[in-house]
Amino acid sequence: MPKKVDRHERRTRIADALMRVAARQGMEAVSLRHVAAEAGVSPGMVQHYFRTKDEMMAFAMAVVRERNQARVTEAVSRLGDDPPPRLLLRTMIATLLPLTEESREDGRVALAFLAYTAVRPEAGEGLREDTRELVAFMASLIPGPWREERATGLLALMEGLGIYLLGGQYTAEQAVAALDAQLDILFPPAGA
């Protein structure tokens, strides 16, 4: 009887290999041959599961999104049933920042993917939709006028802090302090 193959497991294994190559050497080093070697499979197997580099990249980014979503869901669940909006935003953003080794690796892949979509915009359609949804959710938590603009700024702060954390320009403490300062502007303490 032929061996049953788990298609999703194989695709995830290849995507994980792609992410390791991208995290170590940048997106320029991602090729069918390099990914196959990293995954320990033949280039033909990679081609069997992913017809194009864009398809392989989009799947790898989906894996990163799933990991981030799982981390955020776990962190938010620890806050209880009805956390205050400021605490919810802080928890979400701090969880998404590359503050741990695991999140740094995913952050390097996400950054490489963003750079890739800058020159291949068609590859980033799913990312654009995710961004719209995240901004809308953040805006729903922010008080006062210009909610969408403030949410856009908060997302830009998160992305910028992530880049500087990955590049070593900021420590985790500096990044979290900057996040807290911005949240204090959006959510002024009572009596301020």
Automatic annotation (TrEMBL):
Coiled coil: none annotated. InterPro entries: BetI_C, Homeodomain-like_sf, HTH-type_TetR-like_transc_reg, HTH_TetR, Tet_transcr_reg_TetR-rel_C_sf. SUPFAM superfamilies: Homeodomain-like, Tetracyclin repressor-like, C-terminal domain. The keyword rRNA-binding does not apply. It holds the Pfam family TetR_C_6. Keywords: DNA-binding, Repressor, Transcription, Transcription regulation. This is TetR family transcriptional regulator.
